[in-house]
């Protein structure tokens, strides 16, 4: 895309030159008074400037715009995402991405290792990049998607830990929902990775499923002076295993 920038600059120069010449010319456009025409052009220019600042500002300061490159699908493997206006990159973190057309299948004994690239096919939105031990959520909501060939009760074991700051943020309240139905509401205090078991009842399961993690107390490490990390951390997950 950067190869187009010089041509866009050239077009902008030609456009500005035409606008200046047009202002110097007498008459009006569409029989509108010259003053009104000039004011309209000024407001349009200011609006475009504001849009430009917003788009580039989001790209500069929002970690979600960087995560957009790899989640929910890697843009190098799915370049069509660039032209998908249902969730443009500059709105990542503000709009959820469209539901992926391909939802990975799970069965009993399926284990998702959140430290690997392979886990990303299960992650819809709200997640950060993989780290050596786990992967953080990067919003107040984060989702896992999976499909089933046969609907039957399952048990899900999650190895996870909350983002807490002793004396400032002592616990994370995490609500876990399956297809909109609340499964559990947890108050997590232990910063070390621990195992949590959830029952996935058959009446809540579908052929395609959404497991939603809500951590409304998610916060940035930078806001507590820990470091400069601007990600909105709620919980970190090392693995998820179905039984």
Class computed from helices, strands and strand pairing: alpha+beta
- Rounded mean pLDDT score: 86
N-end to C-end Cα span: 45 Å
What characterizes the major β-sheet? 6 strands, antiparallel
What is the CATH T-level topology of the largest domain?
Jelly Rolls
State the fourth-level CATH superfamily of the largest domain: Galactose-binding domain-like
Taken as a percent bin, the fraction of beta residues is: 25-35%
Structural domains: how many: 2
The best one-word shape is: elongated
What does this structure look like?
It is built from three helices and ten strands, in the order H-H-H-E-E-E-E-E-E-E-E-E-E. The chain has 243 residues and is an alpha+beta fold. It starts with a helix and ends with a strand. Strands 1, 2, 3, 5, 8 and 10 form a six-stranded antiparallel β-sheet that branches. Strands 4-9-6-7 form a four-stranded antiparallel β-sheet, with no helix packed on it. Strand 6 and strand 7 form a beta hairpin.
């Amino acid at each position: 895309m950067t190869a187009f920038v010089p041509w866009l600059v050239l077009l902008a120069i030609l456009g500005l030159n035409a606008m200046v010449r047009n202002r110097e010319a007498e008459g009006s456009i569409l029989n509108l008074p010259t003053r009104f025409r000039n004011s309209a052009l000024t407001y349009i220019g200011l609006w475009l400037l504001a849009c430009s600042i917003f788009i580039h500002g989001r790209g500069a300061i929002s970690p979600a715009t960087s995560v957009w490159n790899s989640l929910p699908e890697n843009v190098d493997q799915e370049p069509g995402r660039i032209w998908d206006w249902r969730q443009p990159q500059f709105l990542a973190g503000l709009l959820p991405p469209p539901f992926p057309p391909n939802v990975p299948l799970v069965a009993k004994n399926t284990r998702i290792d959140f430290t690997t690239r392979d886990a990303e096919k299960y992650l819809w939105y709200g997640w950060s990049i993989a780290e050596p031990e786990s992967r953080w959520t990067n919003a107040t909501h984060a989702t896992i998607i999976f499909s089933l060939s046969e609907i039957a009760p399952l048990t899900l074991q999650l190895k996870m830990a909350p983002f807490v700051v002793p004396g400032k943020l002592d616990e994370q309240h995490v609500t876990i929902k399956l297809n909109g139905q609340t499964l559990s509401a947890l108050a997590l205090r232990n910063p070390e990775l621990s195992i949590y078991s959830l029952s996935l009842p058959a009446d809540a399961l579908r052929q395609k499923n959404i497991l939603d993690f809500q951590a409304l107390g998610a916060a940035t490490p930078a806001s507590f002076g820990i470091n400069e990390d601007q990600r909105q951390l709620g919980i970190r997950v090392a693995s998820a295993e179905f039984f």
